[in-house]
Every structure is written in structure tokens, then in C-alpha cells.
Specification:
The chain has a domain at 33-157 and 270-284: Diaminopimelate Epimerase, Chain A, domain 1, CATH 3.10.310. The protein is elongated and about 135 Å long. The protein has 285 residues and is of the alpha/beta class. The chain has a six-stranded mixed sheet, with helices on both faces. The relative contact order is 0.13. The protein starts with a helix and ends with a strand. It has helices spanning 3-27, 42-59, 76-87, 111-115, 118-133, 137-152, 174-177, 193-215; strands spanning 33-35, 62-68, 92-98, 103-109, 270-271, 277-284. The chain contains eight helices and six strands; from the N terminus they run αβαβαββαααααββ.
């Protein structure tokens, strides 16, 4: 084989090799675990990447874990928001950990904001906080991913029973702590038998009363029936003092130092610097 033909064969072989490698690169899953604080081992990162990728592909929502040792003076909301803006995520559920301030935040964007709203974010945060307090970051992130997967599969208008942790942190009673803020949906009062009976009695009573009023004899005379307006006139008038009543009302002090109670934890959604809205719940661990 002459040099010209061999050179052409090498070019084709190189082209085929590049062509075969392209699908591998294209199918490589985008990163889900950003452990800048180095809280996880390489094996733990690999396990969480696999789990998050599986659920992200299933729901078409990126499930992201983000950790840092410091936020450059930003609040955890600002740090998380800037990260999402820079990465260009659309539909996302993300947990952010700031080890310096011991802050944690769960947030949702796009479809994630709809399915993991503030209420569900509170539930997820309450479920994973015991893991974080115990220093079990792998357990906390695994539980976050499982909880995100659960709520992404439940329509947001259905206030479902909180998803209990299958692997509770040692010493943590999920039945006591996890459900304390959960308020089950109330039955529609209009379908209650006692309400329907009461409404029937009231409607029947009103109907009978109206019928009785119009069927009985009506009074057709009054004080002016026998009054001769042409010959009647006022002959005198006078005022009679009956009694005097005085009431006193205390004027509220403008220096009232009392204050209302506060709500610990929770938080809520907001907007990123790029104008993206998000749901959210934050707390300490």
C-alpha cells in the first residue's frame, strides 16, 4: 500500500474512532452532586450521582446536591440562586449546605417549584435535619433525593401524607417529629349527613314561616287610618330630659413595648438575581 492510500486509511480510521466516541460523551449524565465542601467520599458521590440521575431522568427534573464551606458573604438563598442561574437549570429541586453558618436550604425551580412547594420543602427539611445534625451527610443527601423523587410523583394539589424515611437516623423518632406540622385534608362539610339534615330543617322552617306569614290575616290599619289630616295640627311641643350616660375608653399607649411571637425555621421562596422564582424552606443543623 502506497503512502497516499495509507494516509487516507488513517484519516478514515481516526474519523470512525471520533464518531464512535461521540455518543459516549453525549450520553454522559450531567453532574448532580457538587460537593465543594468535601463532605462525601468518592464512593458516596458515585452512589448519589447514580441515584439522582435515575430519578432526574424519570421526572425530567434535575435533583441537585450543593455543598460549600463558605458563600463569600452571601446568604444561602443568594448563593443557591446564583449557582442555579450560572448552571442554567430549568426544572430543578436542589439542597444547599453552608458548613460555615450551618445553614441548609431545600428549593424548587420550574416544575420543581410546583411539586416541591414551601409546604413540602418544610417536610423534606424536617426529615433530613436529624441526619445533618448527626454528621451523616451521605444519609441526609440520599434521603433528600428519595424525598424529592416521592413528591415529584405526587400531584401538588394533593396534600399527601408525608413520606416517612425508610432509614431513620439513630435515635430519631419520625412519628413524633416528622408529622407534627402535617394537617390532614378536611372532608367537605356539604357531604356530611348531619349538615344535610340541619340544612333541610332550616330550609323547611323558613319556607313554612314565609307561607304562614302570607296566608294569615294582615293588619291593614295604622295610626294614620282615622286621622283627619285637614283638621289636625300640632298644638304644642316640649323636650323631656330622661338620663345622662357617660362611657370611658382607655387610649392605647403609643409606647407599647410588647411584641408578637416569631416562627423558627421554614422560610419560603423568592427570586434569584437572574429573576427566577423558587419555592424554598431553610433551617439550621
Amino acid at each position: 500500500m502506497d503512502d497516499g492510500r495509507w494516509h487516507l486509511v488513517k484519516k478514515w480510521l481516526l474519523f470512525i474512532l471520533i464518531f464512535l466516541l461521540l455518543p459516549i460523551e453525549a450520553l454522559a449524565a450531567p453532574q448532580k452532586i457538587f460537593d465543594y465542601a468535601e463532605l462525601l467520599t468518592p464512593d458516596e458521590v458515585s452512589q448519589l450521582e447514580s441515584l439522582a440521575t435515575t430519578y432526574s431522568d424519570q421526572h425530567r427534573v434535575d435533583i441537585i446536591v450543593l455543598t460549600t464551606n463558605q458563600t463569600d458573604g452571601k446568604s444561602i438563598e443568594q448563593y443557591m440562586g446564583d449557582f442555579v442561574d450560572e448552571q442554567g437549570y430549568d426544572d430543578t429541586v436542589i439542597i444547599t449546605i453552608d458548613m460555615l453558618e450551618r445553614d441548609v436550604m431545600v428549593a424548587g425551580f420550574g416544575k420543581g417549584e410546583k411539586y416541591v412547594d414551601n409546604y413540602r420543602g418544610d417536610i423534606i427539611l424536617e426529615e433530613i435535619t436529624p441526619y445533618l445534625s448527626d454528621g451523616n451527610f451521605f444519609g441526609a443527601f440520599r434521603e433528600f433525593i428519595e424525598q424529592a423523587n416521592y413528591y415529584l410523583g405526587v400531584e401538588p394539589e394533593v396534600r399527601s401524607t408525608p413520606n416517612p424515611s425508610p432509614n431513620p437516623s439513630p435515635g430519631y423518632n419520625s412519628d413524633v417529629n416528622y408529622n407534627r406540622n402535617y394537617q390532614p385534608a378536611q372532608d367537605n362539610i356539604f357531604f356530611e349527613l348531619w349538615f344535610q339534615l340541619l340544612a333541610s330543617v332550616v330550609v323547611g322552617g323558613v319556607t313554612v314561616g314565609i307561607m304562614g306569614y302570607y296566608s294569615s290575616g294582615r293588619k291593614t290599619t295604622n295610626a294614620r287610618t282615622y286621622l283627619d289630616v285637614g283638621r289636625s295640627a300640632v298644638t304644642a311641643s316640649y323636650d323631656r330630659f330622661v338620663r345622662k350616660t357617660v362611657t370611658k375608653t382607655k387610649k392605647p399607649s403609643s409606647n407599647n413595648k410588647g411584641g408578637g411571637g416569631g416562627f423558627g425555621g421554614g422560610g419560603g421562596g423568592g427570586f434569584t438575581g437572574g429573576g427566577r422564582s423558587f419555592s424554598g424552606s431553610k433551617g439550621k443543623f
